[in-house]
Specification:
Helix content: under 10%
Number of strands: 11
Radius of gyration: 13 Å
Distance between the termini: 40 Å
Length: 126
């Protein structure tokens, strides 16, 4: 069974940066697309970014384009989300997820993902 553990969240001032990491075990990491999602209090879980198994296909939500960068290190079984120019509206619990099927594209819908991490809190103060 796949296990995903996020880290790197915290409290940052607006305009600052954070890098989230998601370490994956129990899967052949290099075969699966990965996604980052976030959920703010009282809101639905939204897709933030995704990357396919090879790193050659990526997706970004319009709200984070130009500020966030997703990457993966298949040798370390880890996916990253580099977040810059953070805004208070980026405040949420961030989750990483592994796709249900191997060798797919960068899925942006939560239904394409089977394994989920526990989440890491990101708080951006104004």
């Amino acid at each position: 069974q796949g296990q995903l553990v996020e880290s790197g969240g915290g409290l940052v001032q607006a305009g600052g940066s954070l890098r989230l990491s998601c370490a994956v075990s129990g899967l052949t990491f290099s075969q699966y697309g990965m996604g980052w999602f976030r959920q703010a209090p009282g809101k639905e879980r939204d897709s933030v970014s995704a990357i396919n198994w090879s790193g050659g296909d990526t997706y970004y939500a319009d709200s984070v384009k130009g500020r966030f960068t997703i990457s993966r290190d298949n040798a370390k079984s880890t996916v990253y989300l580099e977040m810059r120019f953070l805004k208070p509206e980026d405040t949420a619990v961030y989750y990483c997820a592994a796709a249900a099927t191997a060798f797919g594209p960068a899925y942006y819908t939560s239904g394409a993902y089977f394994y989920w991490g526990q989440g890491t809190q990101v708080t951006v103060s104004s």
